[in-house]
Protein: Sulfide:quinone oxidoreductase
Organism: Cribrihabitans marinus
Amino acid sequence: MDLKHISETFTVSPQVSPGDIAALKAAGFKAIICNRPDGEGADQPTFPEIETAANAAGLEARYVPVEAGKVSDDDVAAFGVALNNLPRPVLAYCRTGTRSATLWSFQEAKTRPMSDILAATQAAGYDMNGVARRIANGGKTPTDTGDAKYDVVIVGAGAGGISVAASLKSRKPGLSIAVIDPADIHYYQPGWTMVGGGIFKAQDTAKTMGSLIPRGVKWIKAAVAAFEPNNNAVILDGCRVVKYDRLVVCPGLKLDWRAVEGLEETLGRNGVTSNYRYDLAPYTWQLVQGLKEGRALFTQPPMPIKCAGAPQKALYLSGDAWFRNRALKDIDIQFMNAGGVLFGVKDYVPALMEYVDKYDAMLNFFHNLVAIDGPARTATFRVAAPDTDPHEVTVDFDMIHVCPPQVAPDFIRVSPLADAAGWVDVDQATLRHKSYDNIWSLGDVMNAPNAKTAAAARKQAPTVADNIVADIAGRAPTAAYDGYGSCPLTVERGKIVLAEFGYGGVMKPSFPTVLLDGTKPSRAAWFLKERMLPPIYWKAMLRGKEWLAKPEKLKVAAE
């Protein structure tokens, strides 16, 4: 038997035989549902044969036959009645298990998020993306065929989404563009490190979404449930359908707080904080100001994460504050990094190490945070250093700044757009999807091997806009993204190591070295971060003004 477990209480399989019943009984099943009509195949046992064997073994059995490829609303209702009246766990079968998995998906659509349904069936080997529209409609046959249609639909109104909308409008003002995002507030997330360091006020990093959507762009305030790329459609929660000629996918990534046991329960108290959340960054500064002695931990999970330098930025600004108020000598600073290096581009490491030494911070590589006990003030790390057996260590803390594990959003991971790791699968130069020619992606959600930063999105948006305009005109892609990313490492209040680099860790400075040497801490870089970058973000990047962001020309290989 080929059993496919979809949940703890529901399993599907291809056709079973009376001879399989004893094994199913031994496996703990209490009931069987047959979803295959009798007589569908010449070698198929009838349901009465299965039922007789099941009853003899003490199992209940129900017959809910469904014609292949024709799951009606009545079929779903009948399946629901059978499932709800049977003891669990239940095995449902048909010829391959697909009909049974489909019926379960439609039945669960009333109470379970679509992403959970798609993930559960996908893990069992059944792709339900083809019926996503019906799942979004609570399992009932949908009637919405997509009345709303736009030249370009953009999923996500973060830095990437609004920037590419503005860049497209500046190139082709007549385009009909819709941006889909359920959020009311847009955040300047690069500013949260400065909030946690007592430099910015949290409220200065937030603006209403409606004030930022470019003029002439339709804002659809809704969450995306699924994609139908073969039908050029996006399915919204509630089964509304939005059609497109071209699609841009940039919803950002998901902070997976739940991946660390006990973390959600203690965030914002017990000395547990994170600059990765708007409401917690002020708590970071509160803890820094209040800590006079003890141990401060700063964690970094496995890559990829947004702004890979942010975990150590929190360390440096905290260390600087303790240095200035003379508490540093009584504070044990430890950086718990799941990776094996301080920073991925080696040219910037010497300058950073000077500050590691200044703040007397201990570097603990290959330490991945797996659990926190807030009331006890202990953090548990899985240590997996090369050539050693993995083990766990538990460390006491008085303050801990956590960088959470990060993954693609659920609705992206289970979609046809995702690669094996769950990220949108694009060509790293053109940012065009590898399988769907009328789809592009940018920002944190796509799988190009670049640093996930706002500076990267600033460079990516014009690239995507240029290539979409070229596609509309019937031309091949013209623009290339070179992997540019920037990480202003706030090593102390008033000085920054400005890391700028592209694919492969190649340095890509924006300014001549005589003006600003990014490998050394400088006040000029601090001025750029504190005074220049916020207005550039709000007034240039989000308005389609591409200062220092003009796309590179795509180099076409000679035939």
